[in-house]
Amino acid sequence: MTTPRIHISGLCKRFGPVTVLEGLDLDVAQGEHLALIGPSGSGKSTILRLLMTLETPSEGTIQIDSEDLWPPHNPSELDRAARAQQKRLALRIGMVFQHFNLFPHLNVIGNIALAPQLVAGRSAAEARQQAAALLERVGLGDKGEAYPAELSGGQKQRVAIARALAMEPDIMLFDEATSALDPELVGEVLSVIRDLAASGDMTMLFVTHQLHFVEQFADRVAMLDGGKIIEQGPPSQVLHNPQHERTCAFLAAVDLSH
Ligand SMILES: Nc1ncnc2c1ncn2[C@@H]1O[C@H](COP(=O)(O)OP(=O)(O)OP(=O)(O)O)[C@@H](O)[C@H]1O
Ligand SMILES: [Mg+2]
Q1: Distance CA 180, CA 11 (A)
Q2: Residue 177 lies inside a defined structural domain of this protein
Q3: Residue 257: its pLDDT value, please?
């Protein structure tokens, strides 16, 4: 593999006495679409949250394009230069959450234009113009003035995707982006994600239980259990010919519940 976009090495995360990740190693290539699967509590969201710098590793390192997002030593005591580097790298990563997390008091354009103004220093006019273009892209060109409470779940999630894209990330993380949606709304969100994947060479990590989507869309699937990746490979292999008994049990359980 050429230099990976994301390089994770020896990553450990403990919450008090609970060990969630235990020496996780993972590389993600430029433009790769990686699906993370695994039972509840296996640490899938924790991996994404460590990438978003919403959590601090207990041990280990994460690099983006060979630069330390989390340096290997004393991650909780980053010096000023390391913090500045972390902030710069984290801005290249966008995340979409299960529960949308839109600001209820801002309309749709306001939600999308906020971070570009506050964090990227764009003018209000420029940020609003970009927000309108992104709304068109997710098929909601007519909803700019609406408030989150006036939108369906699928529409809210499409706004959340537009909001993440407004910071022009080149890595996107999706944490069960469709699991809070009524079944008839899942398709519209997946189709936006699919268009996004097809339109550029964005690197994408997604946590999902939608195995048919993983099958169509992932280049690679990584199965997490016990704080580690226990099996990984193309969907044809991991989903249809799993080698690990815990992968077999997990896939059977997901199939039954969907
Ligand atoms: N802030 C926290 N404080 C304490 N424990 C936490 C915290 N965040 C996560 N955990 C614990 O870490 C473990 C892994 O959580 P995580 O959310 O990463 O799992 P997950 O694989 O995303 O599960 P799910 O499929 O249910 O979303 C769980 O046991 C959870 O209770
Ligand atoms: Mg989770």
Answers
A1: 29
A2: no
A3: 62
Fill in the amino acid letter for 187: G
Question: For position 201, what pLDDT does the model report?
Answer: 84
Cβ pair 165, 155 in contact under 8 A: no
Task: State if residue 56 touches ligand 1 by the CB under 6 angstroms criterion.
Answer: no
- Tally the domains of the chain: 1
**137 is a domain residue:** yes
The CA distance from 123 to 125, in Å, is 5
- Give the environment of ion ligand 2: residues with CB less than 5 A: 45
Is residue 67 one of the residues assigned to a domain?
Answer: no
Which pLDDT tens digit goes with each residue over 73-128? 766 678 888 899 999 999 999 999 998 889 999 999 999 999 999 998 999 999 99
The ligand whose atoms approach the alpha carbon of 97 most closely is 2
Range(s) of the domain holding residue 113 = 104-169
Q: Answer yes or no: pTM beyond 0.90.
A: yes
Q: Which of 12, 19, 20 for a ligand 1 pocket mutation test, highest count of atoms within 8 Å of Cβ?
A: 20
Residue 7 domain-assigned (yes or no): no
Helix (H, G, I), strand (E, B) or coil at 101: coil
